[in-house]
Design a protein that fits this description.
This protein is an alpha/beta fold. It folds into two domains: 140 residues, Alpha-Beta Complex (Aspartate Aminotransferase, domain 1); 239 residues, Aspartate Aminotransferase, domain 2 (3-Layer(aba) Sandwich), CATH 3.40.640.10. The chain is 40% helix and 14% strand. It has eleven helices and 13 strands. Helix 1 packs antiparallel against helix 7, helix 2 packs parallel to helix 7 and helix 3 packs parallel to helix 4. The protein starts with a strand and ends in a 5-residue tail after the last helix.
Length: 394
């Protein structure tokens, strides 16, 4: 049987044992939390208990947590809901040039509806140009700004505390996508001047299909979809009680080992980054120190990205490649394009609690050999094609 080395923790994580147990316990609570009968009250009680656990993990109050279907919905609700609540038709939204596709998607819809979307650039390491960002949010009509806590491909940590302070001074709502950092790094909404924060349960051991949006008290968001009185009219539809139970348990458990895991994962990715930089045709991206502990982004020149991914997968390595939001291995990365690298699909290795030194060692043996083999095959194919196309006798 092929040995598996799972290196896609940035996309999704295995369900934590504590989350599995919490979901199992919640299976008997089938009542509608909106009802006032005994079954409904029991479901509501458990739902609010889990909401409070999520809130406590990020330093929020329970009434500041909106339960959603995941990070994408949380981001869409924050950006679209935050802007539309202002009831201005010609407002502006400012985002960094390396945001997740869900941020770009929400902005595309707003732009089609007449809002202006402004983009703040990043440097070669993917770090936000804070001066350009400050200039953009101070322009008249700016309603909201969104800067991710850490990039989903390079892992570069953004200066969200400073960005939030600048937005507060400018009277602009500030949102951050923290899907890659909640459950992995300490994050307290009391110490970061953020009005809206998105997180996703399956990024830290919770089940898929559940996430949350932090909405600071006093911040108004236009609810979506419309239809009932749930989530304080901010998000209608029956709450996912099983998902909330699993997410809350996984997040609470992740916080217990957060420091140890962050240090261990940093050591793994630091060693991986250093070794990759010495492999011919490989280039590593992202800030070398100001970064999330679990992500490593790199490109490989001279080989077909999809073929390399298939070859790695055949040998048991589970990585992501291309535009990490589309799943297409050969598609150029918009993140790298924003960093000045055009036409290059990125590879991302994301470590987690079960990643071992042996797994990293095995990758560092297999990857260079595969690159060399694929480049030789490509070169031989090119030579054969050239001979085939040359005139007879040459």
């Amino acid at each position: 049987m092929q040995q598996e080395t799972y290196l896609d923790f940035g996309s999704s994580t295995p369900l934590a044992p504590s989350a599995r147990e919490a979901i199992s316990r919640a299976l008997d609570e089938f009542g509608d939390p909106l009802r006032i009968h005994a079954r409904g009250r029991a479901a509501r009680s458990l739902l609010e208990e889990e909401r409070a656990r999520v809130a406590d993990a990020i330093g929020a109050q329970p009434d500041e947590i909106v339960l959603t279907s995941g990070g994408t919905e949380s981001i869409a609700l924050a950006i679209s809901g935050g802007v539309r609540a202002a009831r201005e038709r010609d407002g502006r939204v400012v985002v960094s040039s390396v945001e997740h596709a869900s941020v770009r998607g929400a902005c595309d819809i707003l732009e089609a509806d007449g809002f202006e979307i402004a983009t703040a650039p990043v440097d070669a390491s993917g770090l936000l140009d804070i001066d350009a960002f400050a200039a953009e949010i101070r322009r008249p009509g700016t309603l909201l700004a969104s800067v991710q806590h850490a990039n989903q491909e390079t892992g570069t940590l953004q200066p969200t505390a400073e960005a939030g302070r600048l937005c507060r001074e400018a009277g602009v709502l500030f949102h951050t996508d923290a899907c890659q950092t909640v459950g992995r790094l300490p994050l307290d909404v009391c110490s970061v001047e953020v009005d809206l924060l998105s997180l996703s349960g399956h990024k830290f051991g919770g089940p898929p299909g559940i996430g949350a949006l932090f909405v600071r008290r006093g911040t108004t968001v236009a609810g979506y979809p419309c239809g009932d009185e749930r989530e304080r009219r901010r998000r209608s539809g029956m709450e996912n009680l099983l998902g909330a139970a699993g997410m809350a348990a996984a997040l609470s458990g992740a916080l217990v080992e957060l420091g140890d895991q962050a240090a261990r994962q940093w050591a793994l990715t630091d060693r991986l980054r250093s070794a990759l930089e010495h492999i011919d045709a490989v280039r590593v991206f992202g800030h070398p120190t100001h970064r999330a502990p679990h992500l490593v982004c790199f490109t490989v020149s001279g080989v077909d990205a999809e073929v390399l991914m298939m070859a790695l997968d055949d040998r048991g390595f589970r990585l992501s490649a291309g535009s990490n939001c589309s799943g297409a291995a050969a598609e150029p990365s918009p993140v790298l394009q924003a960093m000045g690298v055009s036409g290059a699909p990125s590879f991302r290795a994301a470590v987690g609690p079960t990643t071992t030194d042996q797994g990293i060692d095995r990758l560092l043996v297999v990857l260079p050999a595969l690159i060399g083999e694929l480049r030789r095959v490509d070169e031989a194919s090119s030579q054969a094609m050239a001979r085939f196309r040359s005139p007879a006798g040459e």
